[in-house]
Specification:
This protein is α/β, with parallel strands linked by helices. It has three domains: 109 residues, Cobalt-precorrin-4 Transmethylase, domain 1; 105 residues, Tetrapyrrole methylase, C-terminal domain (Methyltransferase, Cobalt-precorrin-4 Transmethylase, Domain 2), CATH 3.30.950.10; 43 residues. Helix content is 43%, strand content 18%. The chain has a five-stranded parallel beta sheet, sandwiched between helices. Strands 6-7-10-8-9 form a five-stranded mixed beta sheet, with helices on both faces. The longest helix is centred in the middle third of the chain and has 15 residues. The model has no long low-confidence stretch (mean pLDDT 92). It is an enzyme of class 2 (transferase). InterPro entries: 4pyrrol_Mease, 4pyrrol_Methylase_sf, 4pyrrole_Mease_sub1, 4pyrrole_Mease_sub2, rRNA_ssu_MeTfrase_I, RsmI_HTH, SAM_MeTrfase_RsmI_CS. Keywords: Cytoplasm, Methyltransferase, rRNA processing, S-adenosyl-L-methionine, Transferase.
């Protein structure tokens, strides 16, 4: 006979497609937890059947009433509560952080059962740099908010990871090309499922590919980091110095241009004095 789980919160990563990716430890927790908090009972019921679990489910998402969250935290004092999202690791663009925050504040035991994440799986498939990356979740639907979000990260020297839906994919890729530059990218969908696909190319090429054929399924977009900027020419530096000297003293103008182009400040100061003369 299995011993009772310790009371607390168990964050359980589920498969992102293939049910065989559920870890034995995760399946054990799903069979033994006192209650399982899920996004959608219809989606999670299939996984629980696969795991051989008949434990009761309770719908929970980040828009649940605070009372629902408070009752779950209260139950964690004497019961084991498993948190399960529709796919992959809970909290990664999925419900859960508020529950974890409140459980930690209440001093409850919290443990996580690592497993699949669509963002990381797509990154490994992309062939783009993996040493430094930023997960962005879903871009805003409105054009201005989307452009503002992209502008915030345009200069970041890191690979970017986005989630997206099929109907919005082409427009989002076009917006990324406009806001980030026409970078190398990859679009992965249906990871670990029968029709898994990863398409690579520039953002513009990929936008055109999906313009008339929006794909189905769960989609992850991976965008490579910006390329190295070409070194500034003497003409570019002179133009920048002249413009800056209209607004600033010579020393500050030289400093501004040095920072902008990555050039030597003393050399620029000497050149600025020549230009001023």
């Amino acid at each position: 006979m299995e011993t009772q789980l310790e009371p607390g919160l168990y964050i359980v990563a589920g498969p992102i497609g293939n049910l065989g990716d559920l870890t034995p430890r995760a399946a054990e927790i799903l069979r033994r937890a006192d209650v399982i908090a899920v996004e959608d009972t219809r989606v999670s019921a299939r996984l629980l059947r696969h795991a051989g679990s008949d434990r009761p489910m309770l719908p929970y998402h980040d828009h649940s009433a605070e009372g629902v969250r408070a009752r779950l935290v209260e139950r964690m004092a004497s019961e084991s509560v498993a948190l399960l999202s529709d796919a992959g690791t809970p909290l990664i663009s999925d419900p859960g952080y508020k529950l974890v925050r409140d459980a930690r504040a209440a001093g409850r035991r919290i443990t996580t059962l690592p497993g699949p994440s669509a963002a990381i799986a797509a990154l490994t498939l992309s062939g783009l740099p993996t040493d430094r990356f930023l997960f962005m979740g879903f871009l805003p639907a409105k054009a201005k908010a989307r452009a503002d979000t992209l502008a915030e990260v345009a200069a970041l020297r890191a690979t970017l990871i986005f989630y997206e839906s099929g109907p919005r994919l082409s427009d989002s890729l076009a917006a990324m090309a406009e806001g980030l530059g026409d970078r190398e990218a990859a679009v992965s969908r249906e990871i670990s499922k029968t029709f898994e696909e990863t398409a690579t190319g520039t953002l513009t090429d990929l936008s055109a590919r999906y313009a008339d054929a929006p794909p189905k399924g769960e989609i992850v977009v991976i965008v490579g980091p910006p390329g190295e900027a070409p070194p500034a020419s003497a003409k570019d530096a002179d133009a920048a110095l002249l413009e800056a000297m209209e607004r600033l003293p010579v020393s500050k103008a030289a400093g501004e241009v040095a920072k902008k182009f990555g050039l030597d400040r003393r050399g620029l100061y000497a050149r600025a004095m020549e230009l001023k003369a």
